[in-house]
Design brief:
Length: 179
C-alpha cells in the first residue's frame, strides 16, 4: 500500500473516532445579537491586483443595483437588502470570467473587513454570479431604508444559514490571487 493511501485511511479513521463529519443539531441563536461598537463606514476601499480605489456611497449608488431577500439568523427575521452585486463590483476592477479571467477568479479570494476590524474570507468564485447559485452584495439599504448603525456599506451573502460572514460597516474588499 502506498504512503498516500495509508495517510488517507489514517485520517479517515481518526475522523471517524473523533466524530467529525457527523451531523449535530445547531444551537439556537440568541434572539438579540450584540455588536462591538464600530465607526460607521463612509467609504469603501476596493483593492485588486495591488491597485486600490476608494468609493463613496454616491459611487456605489450610481452602479447597477441588486436586491436580496435573506433570513437574518441573529434577529430571526427576513430582510431585503439592496446594493451592488459583488461580481459586478469586482468585474469593474478586472475580476471577470471573460477571456482568461476565469483562471484568476478560480485562484483568488476576497477579504471583506469592517471598521471594527472584523473580517471574513470568500472565494472569488463563490462571489461570481456567473458561477455560483447564491448572490452577494455590498448592501446600501435594508428594507428600503439606510443601513443605520451598520454604516453606509454592509457585505451580505444569500448563501449563509447564519450571517457570520456578513460584514457590517464594511470598509474594505481586498482581492488576493494565489499563483
Amino acid at each position: 500500500m502506498n504512503r498516500f493511501r495509508s495517510l488517507v485511511l489514517a485520517v479517515g479513521a481518526c475522523a471517524a473516532i473523533n466524530g467529525y463529519g457527523q451531523q449535530t443539531p445547531m444551537e439556537p441563536m440568541p434572539e438579540h445579537h450584540e455588536h462591538k461598537p464600530a465607526t460607521p463606514s463612509k467609504s469603501l476601499v476596493v483593492t485588486v491586483s495591488g491597485k486600490a480605489a476608494t468609493l463613496s456611497l454616491a459611487d456605489l449608488q450610481a452602479m447597477p443595483q441588486r436586491t436580496l431577500t435573506v433570513h437574518n439568523g441573529h434577529s430571526n427575521v427576513d430582510e431585503t437588502y439592496t446594493g451592488v452585486g459583488l461580481s459586478d463590483l469586482l468585474e469593474k476592477y478586472g475580476m471577470t470570467l471573460k477571456g482568461d479571467g476565469a483562471q484568476k477568479i478560480y485562484h483568488s479570494y476576497v477579504r471583506a473587513e469592517g471598521t471594527d476590524n472584523y473580517w471574513v474570507l470568500y472565494s472569488a468564485a463563490e462571489l461570481e454570479f456567473g458561477l455560483h447559485i447564491g448572490d452577494a452584495v455590498v448592501a446600501l439599504s435594508v428594507d428600503g431604508k439606510p443601513l443605520g448603525a451598520d454604516g453606509d456599506f454592509k457585505m451580505v451573502s444569500a448563501d449563509e444559514k447564519r450571517p457570520a460572514r456578513w460584514v457590517r460597516n464594511l470598509k474594505s474588499l481586498t482581492v488576493v490571487t494565489v499563483p
